């Protein structure tokens, strides 16, 4: 939850759009131009049931749910979720990033912030989302570079969990 000038918002996409519309941020984050804004919105709407849904559910079932309930991983469910997630990551690599520098065009936007956060969390479950996905891998490097030093600061906890996972289970062994 975020409270800004008595406006209470609970969801990240709404918060990001509100900040971009209300404060003087660079136009590329959420363009005022209707066509460019529509491209940002298109990814933001798509990602709810794709990038966010698939990556978050995969991590939830592979890492967090077993920790919370103290039961073993449901390998069949994780395999189903991984298959869906791989389709989504392939779509991002081959469709969303085809002939584009960033998810919504050739300038970074809030869609890239949202996308990279969702994709990076899969690394905490020992998955390498960038393996054999050249467009996705290059996009990750561009996005992280643009957002640094804040990207590294925000990802410190992810890196801690990735290191713990790798120590316990070994390096990611993607099935791609």
Q: What is the share of helical residues?
A: 55-70%
Number of helices: 8
The chain-level structural class is mainly alpha
CATH architecture label name: Up-down Bundle
Written as H for each helix and E for each strand, in order along the chain, the element string is EEHHHHHHHH
From the N-terminal CA to the C-terminal CA, the straight-line distance is: 37 Å
Total separate domains: 1
Q: Which spans of ≥5 residues are poorly predicted at pLDDT below 50?
A: none
Q: Kindly provide the radius of gyration, computed on alpha-carbon positions and rounded to a whole number of angstroms.
A: 17 Å
Spatial order of the strands forming the largest sheet:
1-2
Shape: globular
Mean pLDDT: 91
Domain GST C-terminal: 33-176
Subunit structure: Homodimer.
Protein name: glutathione transferase
Enzyme class: transferase
Task: Annotate the secondary structure layout.
Elements: E1 2-4, E2 7-9, H1 12-22, H2 34-49, H3 51-69, H4 75-96, H5 110-120, H6 134-147, H7 150-154, H8 156-169
Antiparallel strand pairs: 1-2
């Amino acid at each position: 939850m975020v409270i800004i000038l008595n406006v209470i918002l609970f969801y990240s996409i709404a918060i990001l759009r509100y900040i971009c519309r209300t404060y003087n941020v660079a136009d590329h984050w959420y363009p005022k131009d209707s066509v460019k804004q529509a491209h940002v919105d298109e990814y933001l709407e798509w990602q709810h049931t794709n990038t966010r849904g698939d990556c978050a559910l995969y991590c939830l079932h592979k890492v967090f749910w077993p920790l919370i309930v103290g039961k073993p991983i449901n390998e069949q469910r994780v395999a189903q979720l991984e298959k869906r997630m791989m389709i989504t990551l392939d779509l991002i690599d081959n469709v969303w990033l085809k002939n584009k520098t960033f998810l919504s065009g050739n300038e970074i936007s809030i869609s890239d912030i949202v996308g990279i956060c969702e994709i990076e969390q899969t690394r905490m479950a020992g998955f390498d989302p960038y393996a054999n996905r050249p467009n996705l891998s290059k996009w990750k490097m561009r996005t992280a570079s643009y957002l640094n030093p804040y990207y590294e600061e925000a990802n410190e906890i992810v890196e801690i969990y990735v290191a713990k996972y790798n120590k316990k289970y070994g390096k990611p062994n993607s099935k791609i």
